[in-house]
Design brief:
Blueprint: H1 5-22, E1 26-32, E2 36-42, E3 49-55, E4 65-66, E5 69-70, H2 73-81, E6 85-88, E7 97-102, H3 110-121, H4 123-128, H5 130-140, E8 152-157, E9 160-166, E10 171-176, H6 182-201, E11 210-213, E12 234-239, H7 248-257, H8 259-292, H9 295-299, H10 303-318
Antiparallel strand pairs: 1-2, 2-3, 3-7, 4-5, 6-7, 8-9, 9-10, 10-12, 11-12
The structure holds 2-acetamido-2-deoxy-beta-D-glucopyranose (NAG) (4 copies).
One 2-acetamido-2-deoxy-beta-D-glucopyranose (NAG) is lined by residues 290, 293, 298, 301, 305-306, 309.
């Protein structure tokens, strides 16, 4: 599973440690997944106050933002951080959200302190996942969130969104899958088909049913076509109340809001795997060629021979 929180979490732990223990001034910029920027500040004067500014991916025009944030974000922040947080209005220049954490109020118990910092490090999911959480909480209660015109578009990457079609007994989630380069598109397409097939055949009754299609599913027919440009097809999940009951809600919100990153991660891994395999194939081909050479050729010092040999040596040293 993705552990995107780890990097920002590590930074936060170091910062709280150094500032609380040593009263060090800190000013740190951080980028995650190439689309969310963070700015973390602690001043010498008030070492127990941590300012965390967040810049969110630019939403596409279909998404509903309320005063610069996804709907439900303010409530989600208050629910997650309680009285340790103050939301600054307006946020720092160049950011969409600035939170002031009062670290003096952190629980003394190390486990609780740790749990809280993990939550601070998950600010991306708290904010971007807020509308998803609102809709899925309604599903858990078998109702539909009011004032939402389906399909509901939620931002997850710059200028890209995924779509929710909420009903009282299920929520359909559709991801138009876009990738940047032609190799990624090919790998992602086959990965997604494999992913859907594997889940179907494994008979995973507890995980949401999932499908893949080349064309947009019916649920998002009304959406403007530029929001539906996908070069690796469409993935659809159907979420039922049993997937969001009690503690399962958090996991489902996390899985759905990181789905694109999850696929990208696997695409990058298979790219690395293919490069390794290709290199091995070239090496064994060279060995086979060398072995197949008639004896008479051995004495002929051709440049063709030399270049092959050099490639073989260089390659084995990089493995
Ligand atoms: C987020 O902040 C940036 C920089 O200030 C701004 O350009 C952008 O419009 C903001 N996004 C929203 C949705 O308000
Ligand atoms: C997509 O590709 C273009 C050009 O190939 C590059 O400039 C851009 O940064 C890439 N975007 C992402 C998100 O990788
Ligand atoms: C979330 O993802 C994890 C890991 O891929 C999986 O084990 C789990 O079943 C998923 N949960 C839901 C509710 O989809
Ligand atoms: C050409 O290949 C043969 C057989 O592997 C080898 O003995 C010979 O030294 C090579 N010649 C050069 C110039 O590398």
């Amino acid at each position: 599973m993705l552990t995107s929180t780890l990097t920002i979490y590590t930074v936060l732990m170091l910062i709280t440690f150094f500032s609380l223990e040593k009263g060090v001034e800190l000013d740190h910029h951080w980028v995650e997944f190439d689309d969310v920027r963070y700015h973390i500040q602690v001043s010498m004067k008030n070492p127990h106050l941590l300012l965390l500014s967040v810049s969110l991916p630019t939403p596409s025009s279909e998404t509903i933002f309320v005063r610069g944030l996804p709907f439900g974000a303010i409530e989600a922040i208050k629910a997650a951080y309680g009285n340790l947080v103050q939301i600054l209005d307006p946020p720092r220049d160049g950011y969409n959200l600035t939170l002031k954490f009062n670290l003096a109020k952190l629980p003394a118990n190390p486990d609780q302190k740790h749990a809280f910092m993990v939550k601070v490090a998950s600010i991306r999911e708290v904010v971007l996942g807020a509308p998803l959480r609102v809709i899925l909480q309604h599903l858990a209660a078998r109702t539909v969130a009011p004032d939402l015109d389906p399909p509901v578009a939620l931002v997850h990457r710059p200028n890209e969104c995924f779509f929710l079609f909420p009903q009282a007994d299920k929520v359909t989630v559709v991801y138009p899958m876009r990738f940047n380069d032609s190799i990624d598109i090919v790998l992602a397409t086959s990965f997604l088909q494999e992913f859907v097939e594997a889940r179907r055949t494994a008979g995973l009754h507890n995980t949401p049913p999932c499908s893949w299609s080349v064309t947009p599913p019916l649920e998002i027919k009304g959406v403007p076509s530029d929001a539906l440009s996908a070069n690796a097809g469409f993935v659809t999940f159907v979420i039922y109340p049993r997937h969001v009951e009690g503690h399962k809600l958090d996991r489902t919100v996390w899985n759905l809001s990181t789905f694109h990153a999850y696929v990208s991660y696997h695409v990058k891994c298979s790219e690395g795997f293919m490069h390794t395999r290709m290199r091995r194939r070239v090496e064994s081909l060279i060995q086979a060629l060398d072995r197949a050479k008639p004896d008479a050729e051995n004495s002929k010092k051709t440049s063709f021979n030399r270049s092959f040999k050099r490639l073989g040596l260089k390659d084995s040293s990089t493995n």
